[in-house]
Amino acid sequence: MSVINKVLKDLDRRGQQPFSKNAASSAVERRGSHRFGLWLLASLIVITLALVFFWWQSSDDDVMTVTESEAADMPLTQERVEPLVDSSAFTVPTERAETEKTSLREQTSIDQNNLASVVVSEPKAVEEEPKLTADNSSEGAEPSGEFSKQPVQLSPTEIAEQHIEKAQKAQQQGRLTSAEEHWRKALAVTPDNKNVRKKLAALQFGRNKVSQALTTLEAGFKRDPSDFEFRLLSARILEKEARPAAALSLLKQATPSATNYPDYVQKKALLAQEMGDYQTAANTYQLLIVAEPAQGRWYLGKALAQQEFAPQTALASYEEALTRITHRPTVEFINQQIALLEASEPAGEQ
Question: What tens digit of pLDDT does each residue of 129-187 get?
């Protein structure tokens, strides 16, 4: 009873009777709305599942359609690419041909459901090169396209020409150190090249490398004692360096023909007269008189040298020079010397 009383009291507070029509209708409405919500949820779930099923089915049909169309388009057998080689040149073994046919059948028997994920690769045609026989090995052989470096052996003359060209170019550009180096290399491979030796010595002397220039020239006349040009060049360098005694000593070591080397003999006579070696000077001028008897200057040089140690002999040389020289100042000088010699002769006899 107490429980019923409590319920009644509670209903009184809410303003409703315990078993009134309003209460019953509210209970029925609450129960009906609950069922309606459940049905609505179930319907949504069913609709969602149906949509998912239809979407999946349609995608599967599309895949099948694509694969079937691709399978229909693809050839069941693959074309074999034949190499452009005469079949009579070589033949393929029977076992190998059967193996290739079997592999082709296996490739075409792939399930159509997996054709979309299969990449078909056509077999590459292998061209076999026909073997070269002894008859066509030289005619039918083609270059392989590979380049191989083969060393080229240059002759010493060719190497020297390369260095000469570089030396001349460097010297024109003012790169004297590089030019000298190339002249050295050219001379090293062709030591008997006299022109290269002279060029190197001239460059060294021009760069104030006197000792090196003299060494270069000395090596030249030692290699060929019959060539007096390097001795003459050395003597001229020594003379310019104020060393006339050394120059005369170098020239006295050889006595070339005055006909072939008049400059050498003349330089030797002048240096001898300058250094007071009058006997050597007179003898050297005599060589020039023999080579060129019409030149009055050689008689004049001999007379000047003889006047220092044999005045009476010098008088005859002056007279020979007077008959060949027409230069007025020189003629006047010769007449003066003759007068002196004639004046001194009686005094000498007394």
Answer: 444 443 444 444 444 556 666 677 889 999 999 999 999 999 999 999 999 999 999 99
* CB neighbour list of residue 245: distance below 8 Å, 6 or more residues apart: 275
Quickly count: other Cβ atoms within 10 Å of residue 333's Cβ: 16
How far apart (Å, rounded) are the C-alpha atoms in residues 18 and 272?
168
- Cα-Cα-Cα-Cα dihedral sign, residues 22, 24, 27, 31: negative
- For the segment 233-263, what is each residue's pLDDT rounded down to a tens digit? 999 999 999 999 999 999 999 999 999 999 9
The predicted-structure confidence for 97-134, as pLDDT tens digits, reads as follows 455 555 545 554 444 444 344 343 444 444 444 444 43
- pTM (two decimals): 0.55
Query: Is the Cβ–Cβ distance between 280 and 252 less than 8 Å?
Result: yes
For residues 232 and 260, is the Cβ–Cβ distance under 8 A? no
Three-state secondary structure call for residue 189: helix
**Residue 247 near residue 239 (C-beta atoms within 8 A):** yes
Q: What is the 3-state secondary structure (H, E, C) of 107-172?
A: HHCCCHHHHHHCCCCCCCCCCCCCCCCCCCCCCCCCCCCCCCCCCCCCCHHHHHHHHHHHHHHHHH
Q: For residue 171, count other CB atoms closer than 10 A to its CB.
A: 18
CA-wise closest residue to 129 among 85, 93, 167, 160: 85
CA distance 299 to 311: 14
* Domain at 155-227, CATH homologous superfamily: Tetratricopeptide repeat domain (1.25.40.10)
**Count of CB atoms situated within 10 Å of the CB of 247:** 25
Q: Which of 277, 344, 346, 271 lies closest to 309, judged by CA?
A: 277
Domain map (residue ranges) of the chain: 155-227
3-state DSSP assignment of residue 195: helix
Q: Tokens representing 264?
A: 């050498």
d(CA 227, CA 264): 11
d(CA 60, CA 78): 29
**To 5 degrees, how large is the angle CA 200–CA 205–CA 211?**
95
